[in-house]
Amino acid sequence: MAGFKSAVNSKIDDYIDQQNLNIPKYNRNNHFFQPNYYDHIIRNDQSYQTISEYIINNPANWKNDKLNTR
After folding, report:
1. Is the pLDDT of residue 4 over 90?
2. Which residues make Cβ contacts (< 8 Å) with residue 51, sequence separation at least 6?
């Protein structure tokens, strides 16, 4: 995963340079990717349904999420 993240960050930084964008580049102090994540193996249909509903509803729930500081 680290190689993928590094490659994506590099491409984004190249794009920022090419477009002369006045935005900060991504590095260890300014993360593009979420630093940690929770993975889960889907073992049955109920687990699949629960996770699918979470993914579908997550964007709408973000507006009221306690971690949303905007």
Report:
1. no
2. 40, 42
Residue 38 corresponds to which tokens in the numbers above? 């929770």
pTM over 0.90: no
pLDDT at residue 36 tops 80: no
Q: Is residue 33 part of a domain?
A: yes
Unique residue bearing structure tokens 């994506």: 8
Q: What is the residue-averaged pLDDT of the chain?
A: 85
Range of the domain at 11: 2-62
